[in-house]
Predict the 3D structure of the following.
Amino acid sequence: MSSIQAVDLAHVGRLINHGPTVLVSSAHGARRNLMAAAWSMPVEFTPPRVAVVIDKSTYTRELVLASGAFALNLPCRAVVDLAYTVGSETGKPAHEGDSDKFSRHGLVPLRGPALGLPLVPGCVAWMECRLIEEPHAQQAYDTFFGEVVSAQADERVFVRGRWSFRDDNAEWHTLHHLGGGLFALPSRTVQAERLKPVRT
Amino acid sequence: MSSIQAVDLAHVGRLINHGPTVLVSSAHGARRNLMAAAWSMPVEFTPPRVAVVIDKSTYTRELVLASGAFALNLPCRAVVDLAYTVGSETGKPAHEGDSDKFSRHGLVPLRGPALGLPLVPGCVAWMECRLIEEPHAQQAYDTFFGEVVSAQADERVFVRGRWSFRDDNAEWHTLHHLGGGLFALPSRTVQAERLKPVRT
């Protein structure tokens, strides 16, 4: 039985609220690609919207602009080598018929339920996004806004709308890139308490 | 001797690359405020630019628009209660002469070296940003772009342009908000290896 469950769109902000590295996947016709992006954030809860930085030099940018859509995939500890590797190679085929990043790494994509986008297997959460056309933000800041139209997560680590990072599910903890292939894991947690104002 | 050191502006992207919660501080004339924001990201390395989401309902937004500047402060485990508390209360004085969030919590701000912005003591990194006026992105996505003009970090945890999260400096690890005051800490790390393509 699959542990992948649909996530209520009202909870989408929580998926990337804690700042994980994401893989951006995209497709146009028979062409498809994925790239790593450390730079993404939610911008609105309702409707659920996100922003992600996609550099001008990338093949992903070409596919996103052509198709008007992209997916965010959240890699986890179990696929840390994959996340790092697809972040350090180009997906643009040098010759017609060259393998793309999916086949190069033996990945059979899952199919996004809303837009049919290729989703990366082995990840712990997935969002399909419709591109919101903002040519100025794209040009000036490489910033792409999208509306999330489907969201799924692995219920072994995302439970009732919240991340649950524990010792017994460490393989599925999200990745937070520190540079040079070193990733932090959100494995320890701390519960904050409200402070009372000091008397002044 | 202070452990606060200037950070080369070329390394600014690394400060928030891993997705920490930030406190946004701002000032205009005698008014000042701070708020918690989980939603921020770098958008460019050179010049160093960032984006941060500042909701229309906030007092911070009023001060940022009036002054054309904001600072990002990175709270750490040692000040987790403060980070949570300033994220759940308004800074707008109800009456003239009411205390602001700094004095309410006994905080004597540090002075930003470039713009004189009030910086939050007890944090582990600080950036002063000049607002880049983008009225459409501000209105449509609550997204504020800024150029980083000064950056500082605590060298006990940010060493030669990189975060160094270790057991012996756990009090200064950054915070990654999971919701409801529960924060993940980037205390464990994993080093990725490059994968070789599979034969297809």
Remarks:
- Chain B touches chain A through 63 residues (CB under 8 Å).
- Chain B is about 15% helix and 35% strand.
- The first helix of chain B runs from residue 12 to 16.
- The two ends of chain B are 59 Å apart (CA to CA).
